[in-house]
């Protein structure tokens, strides 16, 4: 009983911080989402408007367009990071000359702040001045202009995200691969299984929890990407890279549309939870039932 | 590591030394009054937030240390990005936390702040506290730009600290090159001079783009602040280009129920606005390729890199472009002129019915939420003393007091800038700041996505401007300004 009380006392500071900086702001945003509030409107008061913000969302073409490009961005970025991260993790499981240096360099993007990543990629991709458009033009005669081409801007934001976050996936998967017991693999080889069969029937099922956890983290991060993209393209050209995070930022900060912006935030949180739940159910639940 | 540390420490030392050198040059009159006035605020630290620009950096690096040396009042000025500055200032004033004692107010946001009663009436505060009134400070010393920061009562709600016009900058070396002049005359039948009309400007731009393309050199005929995802492009069109075609106040008529569409009495989608947009896009198409990613900063660097023969550039960048050879390749080769205009626009500007371009700038305001209002009043007056203005104008091309124009160093810099300060003083009245709307950012952000689609070509000029006008009216209705 006494140790239980001591446990709660020791936990109390953390719980208090979590409540103040996690729960309270969330409750405030949820409360605001049922109100109309723009401090620069003719009437700057906070006015209760029921579910009007959510009703408006359903018919808001800008929001729906933003949702569409965000889903595409998340899909391409997370899938690419997962595949590339796995390939790199497998590579790092083997010894090769310069492995330590390569692994260090490969991990460097992880420690950079997103705003710096966006700045670097902006410098590298500025039309006609950046090194990437220059090299593409010199080597292949390609004109990369992320200020004009929606497809190019979209692709560059995905590549930038992959460059930034693949190391996280690699590190997580290395940890998972290192912890696998050797016996099932030796047994499979004795039974004559080929590499593909070993991957699908042994490696993947055994590292599935780590993969799902990694995908959860990346999915949540990618859904709320703001800094990098805002710095690189500003959401443009047009609305080509106006992902949900950027859309919310522009609604809430410059436009000071606090009520409506809060409603979008709540919906995005809901969508994130649903996406994670679907992922969990599809990948881990059948395995757990067995 | 040690080398990097030494390099960093050296850079810091040089920066501090430069600030200290400026501070030493400042001779403040009535030093004893400042010492006495500051004595009652012992231990007070003032906090300010501003955009990181040359004029603001002078405040944090030079004026703040000098003020502290005189009064003992510490001043911490946070210089940050434009977006962050607004984010921090508005949140502080909205929540009433009182973190900041001084905030930067750009000319275009002051009306929104006044509408929300965010700012202290500085004129009134000084009148009510004569013991805080510095002898060297006088409201009547300000240029007419200060009028932008007056409320309906005529009182001052911000101390102007920067002011500049968006000017037509051109390369004097290219415009004066005999071979180029001869080729231009042969091609067009007229002398190569800075353009006075849009047709002339386009002709010059096309000529230079072709001329250097034929030579395989990276120089284009015009700049364009045409970012396809940043509000800088929106501003360039509505505040610098559209007025030269006779479309004022963003195409909105504040006296007619804030109408934006032609149908309701506005001009946002008028024939003049469509002509302006078509012309601007045609200039964008022959500007350096980076223009579609350029904000005001990149336009200045493009010009300074020698990649454009002419263009519209914010005056705050004119000094370093024309004089700083560590950053600019066109030092000594910069001329200034008034922007090209459509017929009748100059007459409208001279009569006060219109304007020919953007007069921008900013002030330092005192939030009503500040916990150190009296001490802040002292610093705000310190910023407006005539004796600190000359060095400030040299460090950054800004003038807010009439007397600064006559100082020797400013006259010298004026020569190097091709007469920029003369233009600011004598023709500044032809330019105008943003319209007095309390819904500045809200309207911009509501219409910007459509604007960007016009820039990318996803929407035609006619269709796009029609949609923008309709969206503007809808937003103004939603905000409660349009009935």
UniProtKB/TrEMBL annotation, chain A:
Compartment(s) of residence: Cell membrane
Keyword Translocase carried by entry: no
Membrane topology per record: Multi-pass membrane protein
Keywords on record: Membrane, Transmembrane, Transmembrane helix, Transport
Domain of life of the source: Bacteria
Domain ABC transmembrane type-1: 63-279
TM region positions: 7-31, 62-89, 110-132, 152-178, 198-220, 258-280
Recorded GO CC terms: plasma membrane
GO terms of biological process kind: transmembrane transport
Pfam families: BPD_transp_1
Record InterPro entries: MetI-like, MetI-like_sf, Sugar_ABC_transporter
Family: Belongs to the binding-protein-dependent transport system permease family.
Name the record gives this protein: ABC transporter permease subunit
Automatic annotation (TrEMBL), chain B:
UniProt main location, coarse: periplasm
GO CC terms of this entry: periplasmic space
Keywords of this entry: Cell membrane, Lipoprotein, Membrane, Palmitate, Signal
Pfam families: SBP_bac_8 (PF13416)
Subcellular location: Periplasm
Domain of life: Bacteria
Signal peptide: 1-23
Family, per entry: Belongs to the bacterial solute-binding protein 1 family.
Protein's UniProt name: Extracellular solute-binding protein
Annotated organism of origin: Halovulum marinum
